[in-house]
Amino acid sequence: MMSTAEPMTARGAHYTALLETLDNHGATKLHAIEREQLLEAADALLFGEDASRIVVSYPAANGGKIEAICKAAGAPYPRL
Q1: Alpha carbon of 2 to those of 12, 48, 50, 52: distances in Å?
Q2: Cα dihedral across residues 67, 34, 5, 17: positive or negative
Q3: Mean model confidence pLDDT for the chain
Q4: Is the dihedral of CA 37, 29, 16, 14 positive or negative?
Q5: How far is CA 63 from CA 1, 13, 52, 73, in A?
Q6: Coil/strand/helix, residue 26
Q7: Is the dihedral of CA 54, 57, 60, 62 positive or negative?
Q8: Closest CA to 21 of 8, 10, 30, 11
Q9: Cα 22 from Cα 26, distance rounded (Å)
Q10: pTM of the predicted model, to two decimals?
Q11: What's residue 76's pLDDT?
């Protein structure tokens, strides 16, 4: 496991190697959602960052519109 003291260039090199491996072999082995989950995990492990989250407040009457926008963008639409 990498420490936070490891240079970002080495982390970037590991991330690039992961992307190259996915590009070379992943399309035949992984579904799109699996690839996305793997890249999110790599972001968290290599850079200490997880995918960003956005909280949106809206009137209940606009719920259908917001859900449609999220769906069109491929974004999750969990209701809190």
Answers
A1: 12, 11, 16, 22
A2: negative
A3: 79
A4: positive
A5: 43, 42, 21, 15
A6: helix
A7: negative
A8: 30
A9: 4
A10: 0.42
A11: 84
Residues 11 and 49: beta-carbon distance below 8 Å = no
Q: Are 11 and 46 in contact (CB under 8 A)?
A: yes
Q: Which amino acid is at 44?
A: A
Give the pLDDT confidence score for residue 4 in this predicted structure.
54
Please write the tens of the pLDDT for every residue from 26-78. 666 778 888 888 888 887 777 775 567 778 888 889 989 989 998 898 888 88
Residue with tokens 């290599």: 46
Each domain of the chain, given as residue ranges in start order, spans 1-49, 52-80
Helical segments of the chain, H only: 8-21, 27-29, 32-47, 63-73
Q: How far apart are CA 22 and CA 17, in angstroms?
A: 9
